[in-house]
Known about the structure:
This protein is an alpha/beta fold. The chain has helices spanning 27-40, 58-68, 82-92, 108-119, 141-158, 173-182, 190-200, 222-242, and strands spanning 4-5, 14-20, 45-52, 72-77, 97-100, 125-129, 136-137, 169-172, 205-209, 211-212.
Amino acid sequence: MSPVAAPRVPAPEISVVIPVYNEQAILRESVVGLCEAMRGRGWGFEVLLAENGSKDDTVVIADALAGEYPEVGWFSHPEPNYGGALRAGIRRARGRFVVCEEIDLCDVEFHGRALELLRAGSADMVIGSKAMRGARDTRPLGRRVATRMYNGLLRIAVGFPGTDTHGLKAFARAPVAPIVDACVVEHDVFASELVVRAHRGGLRVLEIPVEIREKRAPSIHLLRRVPRVLRHVVRLVGAVHGSHGA
């Protein structure tokens, strides 16, 4: 099996980047549903599956999907690293607009609302917030509380002005690409650094409320993630304050 399969469509308007780690249970259903929904809207798109360190049949399923759907491609990041895989996927994206998705969400309704704003030039980046007024977050209470505590930490540590950094986001590739390259933190905190730097760099960042209905529990237990997240937040603080707002 080739270690990478590129989408077999011309340069699309939309690139959807999805990090995947041990997702054999929901990968096929999620990707098929996403592709059929996006085809139904008449969009030109590609889906990039950023596999990272999976021990199950995620790669086998991703390769089969790439053979069935010309819009689907996949590659393997060498270790379990959400942020590293997401960064690599964004760099491979060819679309004018990039959507960062989660395999357990695949919210095409968010895509449509975000793309409307991006196409109109009303924003450079659109965040799907699960914590702002109007959002509906159906995850367990512990995860909802953790989201608010984490975003509160970002507000104190780096002056983050929004309500959410993780999960769904869409952006115009051209103005955001240099910010992707400037980010220094990976794993879970890469997504936060990307949003924080977009704000600090003067990009027009808008939040819109989303409804979160996950298809499965997180692949990594919340408490096991906390020490690593805190270490990366410390690194983020040093990097952001050391960049003088870059």
